[in-house]
Write a structure and sequence with these properties.
By secondary structure, this protein is an all-alpha fold. 71% of the residues lie in helices and 0% in strands. The chain has helices at residues 2-6, 18-40, 42-59, 62-69, 75-91, 96-105, 108-118, 122-145, 171-191, 195-213, 219-236, 242-258, 261-275, 284-301, 312-315, 326-329, 336-364, 368-387, 394-409, 422-433.
Length: 434
């Protein structure tokens, strides 16, 4: 009950309509819980996803849902991409269990559409932003607490400064989400009118940056954060201050990596692994380079339609230099573009690019401050898709697809610190409705 009150999800909204109204409320409560749980508890997020789906179906009111859905520019590419994945299962040269796994994992493309239909009211969007902020603050607080205490819920258990302290899942996923949270915190601070709260938000953003550069061993997080901040600075800064803004961000990033011995060591190791990739495909960089060389050999076999949904997992083993390493390379190719191209052909790749294009279009049509956040999010997705398979990986796909829904559904409620007072929240609702 305390958490429900803190998240402000205890009040009714909408007219009484018997059991259908109750199922609609359950779907929305579950949605709020989903935005809190997917960063911190994947199992709970999966359960709440199922509750959202079942409650949404039982609530009905499909004509209203359709009116909301058709106004969102992401709906078409989301549906088309999942539809083509289903078609790919028909002709796939793949094991049935692999086809079914792809159907299941990528079903979140459709769940994102359902979330869009539930996010038409400002106060529900605000509650989702609030839930996500609470989850990320919990992760950030745990990272710093882990320096001194062995937290039972942390994924790492080494104490001290300068070592890896990722708390949930793996450090790549945590740092990807934290990179976007940094962007959000900066945007919240820029829009904050209260000086003390503005200083607090900048301080939290700084601590979030340090959690990536000094308290994690992940190179991906640093690269993703660097690109996101540079994109944000270029878009958000006034024309006559753009060069200054980019310079400040660049200097900050250089200082961050220069003062992080762990990060310096990780980048030095990356160069060594890249040089040795021809003889060692088991290292982090060597693994990726090997995947990038071998996956195009699959693509050449069927470039337009692909080998079919789920085919990568077995077909990649036939082109490896060492077939005994199949278990290392058969999960995904560490590149979402190549993954879709190998399985679903040029058509699947084009639909994924179409989705990214629509995200960019949404940014182009938004106000300048909104566009900076949207473009930073899109940049994070693109960069992560070049070195990982984020729509395939469980927690990252939750983050990217569900946050797409919330971002494109949001208005003015995106740009106020969601943990502000009730008075501020009321003002946000009024501004958003207007």
């Amino acid at each position: 009950m305390v958490m429900l009150r803190f998240l402000n999800i205890g009040n009714r909204s909408g007219p009484e309509d018997g059991y259908r109204w109750r199922f609609d409320e359950i779907a929305k409560y579950s949605m709020v819980g989903l935005f809190f749980s997917f960063p911190v508890a994947l199992g709970l997020a999966n359960l709440l996803s199922a509750m959202v789906l079942v409650s949404w179906v039982l609530a009905g009111n499909y004509s209203k849902r359709w009116r909301v859905i058709k106004q969102n520019s992401l709906v078409l590419p989301l549906i088309l991409l999942y539809g083509w994945i289903l078609v790919g299962g028909i002709y796939a040269d793949a094991l049935p269990k692999d086809i079914g796994l792809h159907f299941s994992k990528y079903s979140k493309l459709l769940l994102a559409v359902i979330l869009i239909s539930l996010l038409d009211e400002p106060h529900w969007r605000l509650r989702c932003w609030r839930a996500f902020a609470v989850a990320m603050l919990f992760i950030l607080g745990s990272v710093y607490a882990n320096i001194w205490f062995d937290l039972p819920w942390s994924a790492t258990h080494a104490q001290g400064w300068g070592v890896d302290h990722h708390v949930i899942g793996d450090y790549i996923t945590q740092n990807v989400m934290m990179s976007f949270f940094v962007v959000l915190l900066i945007q919240y601070a820029r829009n904050e009118k209260h000086n003390k709260r503005q200083v607090f938000l900048y301080l939290v953003a700084f601590l979030a940056v340090l959690s990536i550069t000094h308290l994690s061993q992940g190179r991906t997080g640093y690269v993703v954060m660097a690109i996101a901040l540079l994109v944000f600075a270029i878009k958000a800064a006034p024309k006559h201050h753009k060069l200054f803004g980019v310079g400040v961000v660049g200097l900050t990033l250089v200082l961050a990596i220069a003062t992080s011995q762990g990060m310096l060591g990780r980048f030095e190791l990356a160069f060594v692994e890249a040089k040795r990739s021809n003889v060692d495909s088991t290292s982090s960089i060597g693994h990726r380079i090997h995947d990038y060389r071998k996956t195009p050999e699959l693509i050449k076999q069927s470039p337009v339609f692909g080998l079919g949904t789920g085919a990568y997992h077995t077909q990649i083993c036939k082109v490896l230099d060492d077939p005994t390493q199949c278990f290392r390379h058969s999960w995904h190719p560490h590149n979402q573009f190549l993954f879709f191209w190998a399985d679903n052909g040029l058509v699947g790749l084009a639909l994924f690019v179409f989705l990214l294009y629509r995200l960019g279009e949404h940014a182009r049509k938004s106000r300048k401050s909104e566009a900076a956040v949207f473009l930073s999010f899109t940049a994070i997705l693109i960069v992560d898709s070049m070195i990982n398979s984020p729509l395939w990986s469980a927690r990252e796909s939750h983050f990217f697809l569900f946050m797409m829904a919330l971002l494109t559904a949001s208005g003015a409620d995106l740009f106020r610190w969601p943990l502000a007072s009730q008075r501020s929240i009321t003002g946000e609702r009024t501004a958003d409705v207007a």
